[in-house]
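Quiz preparation item.
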């Protein structure tokens, strides 16, 4: 992808070595912060400026004091992204100041196995070069004449190295990097927009050219344009203050406006945002040169541990614990704001003053995330179902930023199995395919030389869960079904071959994939908790669940190859799938208990193997097997990431009416004041994990019954399931237009009506009746 016209004459800039001369070094790199500025003067009004910005590792951009943008979009060693933003309305006649705060995270090999303080997020690729910045752009007059340039390397940018901020790793959550401990007195006052800021400023060093050299050598930070839209930033408000526990320290309140905490006093306030959110936080402070201000962010109230939970808003029997920033005020009027967003529903601000009083204003919060447009709707007379739709949509939104995320509070990492489900839910809710396409390419880029994909990416720390790579293959077919674009499965077909070849090399004497290296994760089963989600079977030989997932991937690959003109490869994959199925039936079916064991000769039985036996067509009597799977309490239970597949198996067996238990499980969390879907149904760590947002798929596709009958939705089928609720209605977004559906059950009669996109063939099925609408349009039965 050519970027030759985006950074003409520009270079990367960094911090000169002499600014480090008074710094101490403990022998390894830690996170570093620097402030960059570019000043210029305009003598005419009406100028325009479009900027292109990147940094290593992250930045926050300000133009004339206005905070505008965070970036760059997360990349990896071979794809470093940059943003483009029109800042014309923020520049002015006279003196202008562009300022950028940059934090550089260390590379993984500088961190050490203990994940100590000063580390960066695992999802950010670190650098040994310290804070680096790249900016391109020209200020143009109304008639297009160049008035000034802001390009780094070609114009004078100054830099000041920070020593005010230290990063402390939060307990139980090293994945997200360090939280901030900030000495406000050491921050160079006025660095954002003052003509003469405090601190030691010098001309920035010119580091590297932007473009590869003439013989193909690629310099650090190989650039590509940002592949997804900019994150949204919307101001929101805390909804109320929570009472402190009786044994707690005295409370203060913002209800009357700014509050002054007198000298030698410790006080706190706890604020409720109403729902779990991801937001930038700003705390206006003045005075208190010897005070300590702690800002603690919590998903909910908890007990002695972060997994000890009840009513999520119970501030009497539980307390707020979790990640926290600490700010030490300088004594002047200032605004403290951590660089990266924080995840929370509740925030505790705790103040301890010394000799001087400190004045605080209520924290300001600016919600951020991927600009997910919610186009599909769902309404039912069952308030519980409506609530599940609401919290599922919020959960998906909170787990989408520059990538999909497993959970925004603990990890902010993009895992394949999680993401495949999140993509399906995104299609159902918004029809947006941009993040999906970026994600598919992310995992393709993660491939190891031996042919297997990393389980999470982008990520500095290489991790492999082999079975997750198979879910990436499912993503390709999902994308094709949603868009009808065969170029994407064709583009990544070779990577599919690599993954399946890796699996093929691990087939053992029983004709099944046996033990492999890496993490043999299956599911967060309670009985497998001390095995990190691995079945016993996977530690001694072949895993039935993993082999059956392999079968699904082989069949998906066969369809992809047939679609893209490789019939011989398709036939080979189909043959391999049938061989695996025959060997699973031979070695893993127990005719005495009428179940598939989790591995050959292993007395371990779970719901997972039975679900997959139905989905692969291996089960000879799907209804009997799924009935036993539901009713046999001795079986190891599927957790939230498997709900989607469990429901598909029940649907395949004609037992969708039995899915109510899964919706009831989510409703149980709603009754405990959860505002998002938790990570799992037992020993809940994260309160927000989108692999459990399955109502986003079920309500449009099954309750309303709208599904594609051809790739790209070139044909549509409407087959609503009229159970579990007496009626429902809604809109289902598709690439060819919205589908409206409404149905009501009256005694034994179903009243159905709606409208399909005009010009799109549509089949409507209800109560065994079928009608074909060759040109779409309205229908009523």
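Solution:
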């Amino acid at each position: 992808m050519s970027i030759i016209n985006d950074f003409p004459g520009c270079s990367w800039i960094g911090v000169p070595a002499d600014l480090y001369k008074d710094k101490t070094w403990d022998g390894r790199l830690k996170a570093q912060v620097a402030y960059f500025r570019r000043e210029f003067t305009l003598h005419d009004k009406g100028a325009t400026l479009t900027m292109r910005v990147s940094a290593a590792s992250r930045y926050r951009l300000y133009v004339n004091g206005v905070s505008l943008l965070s970036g760059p979009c997360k990349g990896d060693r071979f794809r470093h992204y940059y943003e483009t933003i029109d800042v014309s309305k923020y520049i002015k006649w006279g003196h202008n100041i562009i300022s950028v705060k940059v934090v550089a995270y260390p590379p993984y090999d500088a961190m050490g196995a203990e994940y100590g303080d000063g580390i960066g997020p695992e999802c950010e690729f670190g650098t040994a070069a310290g804070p680096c910045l790249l900016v391109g752009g020209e200020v143009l007059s109304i008639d297009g004449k160049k008035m000034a340039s802001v390009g780094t390397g070609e114009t004078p940018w100054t830099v000041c190295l920070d020593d005010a901020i230290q990063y402390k790793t939060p307990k139980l959550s090293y994945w997200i990097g360090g939280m901030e401990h900030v000495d406000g007195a050491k921050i160079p006052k006025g660095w954002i927009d003052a003509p003469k800021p405090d601190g030691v400023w010098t001309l920035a060093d010119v580091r590297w050219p932007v473009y590869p050299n003439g013989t193909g050598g690629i310099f650090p930070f190989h650039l590509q344009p940002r592949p997804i839209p900019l994150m949204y930033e919307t101001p929101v408000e805390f909804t109320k203050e929570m009472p402190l526990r009786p044994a707690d320290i005295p409370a203060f309140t913002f209800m009357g406006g700014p509050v002054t905490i007198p000298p030698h006093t410790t006080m706190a306030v706890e604020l409720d945002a109403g729902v779990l959110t991801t937001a930038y936080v700003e705390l206006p402070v003045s005075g208190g040169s010897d005070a300590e201000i702690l800002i603690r962010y919590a998903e909910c109230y908890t007990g002695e541990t972060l997994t000890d939970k009840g009513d999520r808003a119970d501030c009497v029997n539980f307390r707020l614990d979790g990640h926290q920033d600490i700010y030490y005020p300088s004594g002047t009027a200032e605004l403290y704001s951590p660089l990266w967003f924080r995840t929370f529903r509740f925030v505790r601000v705790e103040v301890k003053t010394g000799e001087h009083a400190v004045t605080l204003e209520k924290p300001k919060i600016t919600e951020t995330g991927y600009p997910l447009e919610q186009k599909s709707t769902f309404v039912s007379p069952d308030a519980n179902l409506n609530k599940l739709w609401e919290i599922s949509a919020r959960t998906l939104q909170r787990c989408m930023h520059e990538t999909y995320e497993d959970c925004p509070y603990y990890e902010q990492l993009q895992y394949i199995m999680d993401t495949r489900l999140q993509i399906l839910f995104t299609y159902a809710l918004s029809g947006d395919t941009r993040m999906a396409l970026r994600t598919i390419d992310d995992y393709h880029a993660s491939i190891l030389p031996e042919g297997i994909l990393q389980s999470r990416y982008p990520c500095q720390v290489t991790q492999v869960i082999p079975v997750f790579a198979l879910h990436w293959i499912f993503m390709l077919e999902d994308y094709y079904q949603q868009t009808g674009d065969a170029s994407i499965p064709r583009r990544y077909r070779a990577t599919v071959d690599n993954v399946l070849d890796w699996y093929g090399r691990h087939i053992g004497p029983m004709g099944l994939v046996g033990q492999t290296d890496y993490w043999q994760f299956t599911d967060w089963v309670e009985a497998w908790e001390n095995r990190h989600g691995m079945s016993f079977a996977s530690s001694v030989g072949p895993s039935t669940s993993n082999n059956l997932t392999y079968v699904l991937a082989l069949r998906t690959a066969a369809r992809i190859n047939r679609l893209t003109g490789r019939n011989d490869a398709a036939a080979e994959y189909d043959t391999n799938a049938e061989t695996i199925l025959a060997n699973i039936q031979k070695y893993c079916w127990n005719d005495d208990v009428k179940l598939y064991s989790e591995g050959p000769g292993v007395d371990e039985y779970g719901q997972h193997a039975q679900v997959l036996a139905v989905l692969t067509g291996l089960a000879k009597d799907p209804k009997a097997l799924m009935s036993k799977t539901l009713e046999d309490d001795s079986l190891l239970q599927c957790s939230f990431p498997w709900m989607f597949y469990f429901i598909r198996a029940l649907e395949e067996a004609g037992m969708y009416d039995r899915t109510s238990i899964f919706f009831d499980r989510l409703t149980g969390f709603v009754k405990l004041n959860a505002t998002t879907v938790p990570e799992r149904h037992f020993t809940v760590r994260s309160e927000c994990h989108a692999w459990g947002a399955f109502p986003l798929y079920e309500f449009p596709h099954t309750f309303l019954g709208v599904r594609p009958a051809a790739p790209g939705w070139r044909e549509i089928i409407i087959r609503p399931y009229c159970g579990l609720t007496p009626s429902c209605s809604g809109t289902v977004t598709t690439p060819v237009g919205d589908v409206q559906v409404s149905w009501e059950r009256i005694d034994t009669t179903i009243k159905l009506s709606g409208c399909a996109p005009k010009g799109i063939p549509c089949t409507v099925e209800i109560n065994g009746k079928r009608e074909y609408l060759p040109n779409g349009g309205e229908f009523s039965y």
